[in-house]
Amino acid sequence: MDSSELYHIKQQFVLGAYTTLVNLTLPDPNSPTYTPALLYQARAHIALDDPKSALGLLPADSENVAVKAAASLARYVSAARGVDKDAIDTSFEELRDLAVEIEGDDTDGSEEEKALVRVLAGTAFARAGEIEEALETLGVDTEDLEAVFVIVHIYLSINRPDLAKKQFERSKRWAEDDLLLQLIESTIGLATGKDGYSNTNSFYTEQLGNPSLTSPHLLTARGVTRILRNEIQEAVSDLEESLEQQKGDAEATAALVVAAGLGALKKAEADELWTQFVSKHPEHPLAVDVANKESYFDEVASKFEVPALASA
């Protein structure tokens, strides 16, 4: 596998073509591209919420710091799913130790591998809601574009698009016109509605036009963008295609539920879709948010006293 093929693997990962990556035939273990390809494949398994497969892929006796970090992230995802606090704490300690280790002068590993350790550790901390530790680990002054991508997502998740934009503007001064830089810009555009989502929509459409790419993630992203542009039927088309490629995906289903509620489906069909979604994904933020609002409405309604009718 030559460097151009490794670039293609990176492109697939950046654009969310995870299913393609997990089915990839890895290069010869003696090839210099073997470990980077292995890491992308393991991370694709984690992105597909399949940490067990990632752990089965990563050699347990590896001394590579990035491989160790990927395994720790997989163990965290698995522990978080089972709400195993002890296992979560153990995986966090592993990641913290690795983050400290790579700061040493005598640590083996390339700068790219050390940067990946920070990204993987920061991702775990961010997923656990440990925002300050995630940002400290990633380094808000970093010149690693993948770390910037995670930082931008963190800022958007806490409703700080201003800080996300600052990260993007800062990155443009030193980063090449990289695909990941374009994705960062589109992600910020999706969150902020800049220019009526036109740049974001154009980016997703351009990438989906690549005949060598199959990415339900991109289809879902464009579907969400089209909902926000009030292109409801076009959004439904994207989301249904996404679900054909990745059946049962929570994000695509959530977006389809929203489109259904906006008139894409008949009310009875929309209600049935919502019931199925809540049943299968009760912990999804959309399901939790609606449940909280229903509970709050019932609480307020219970305190409301209907005044007596005025008599003539």
UniProtKB/TrEMBL annotation:
<dbReference type="GO" id="GO:0006891">
    <property type="term" value="P:intra-Golgi vesicle-mediated transport"/>
</dbReference>
<keyword id="KW-0333">Golgi apparatus</keyword>
<dbReference type="GO" id="GO:0015031">
    <property type="term" value="P:protein transport"/>
</dbReference>
<protein>
    <recommendedName>
        <fullName>Coatomer subunit epsilon</fullName>
    </recommendedName>
</protein>
<dbReference type="GO" id="GO:0006890">
    <property type="term" value="P:retrograde vesicle-mediated transport, Golgi to endoplasmic reticulum"/>
</dbReference>
<dbReference type="InterPro" id="IPR006822">
    <property type="entry name" value="Coatomer_esu"/>
</dbReference>
<keyword id="KW-0813">Transport</keyword>
<keyword id="KW-0963">Cytoplasm</keyword>
<comment type="function">
    <text>The coatomer is a cytosolic protein complex that binds to dilysine motifs and reversibly associates with Golgi non-clathrin-coated vesicles, which further mediate biosynthetic protein transport from the ER, via the Golgi up to the trans Golgi network. The coatomer complex is required for budding from Golgi membranes, and is essential for the retrograde Golgi-to-ER transport of dilysine-tagged proteins.</text>
</comment>
<dbReference type="Pfam" id="PF04733">
    <property type="entry name" value="Coatomer_E"/>
</dbReference>
<dbReference type="GO" id="GO:0005198">
    <property type="term" value="F:structural molecule activity"/>
</dbReference>
<dbReference type="GO" id="GO:0030126">
    <property type="term" value="C:COPI vesicle coat"/>
</dbReference>
<keyword id="KW-0968">Cytoplasmic vesicle</keyword>
<keyword id="KW-0931">ER-Golgi transport</keyword>
<keyword id="KW-0653">Protein transport</keyword>
<comment type="similarity">
    <text>Belongs to the COPE family.</text>
</comment>
<dbReference type="InterPro" id="IPR011990">
    <property type="entry name" value="TPR-like_helical_dom_sf"/>
</dbReference>
<keyword id="KW-0472">Membrane</keyword>
<dbReference type="GO" id="GO:0006888">
    <property type="term" value="P:endoplasmic reticulum to Golgi vesicle-mediated transport"/>
</dbReference>
<dbReference type="GO" id="GO:0000139">
    <property type="term" value="C:Golgi membrane"/>
</dbReference>
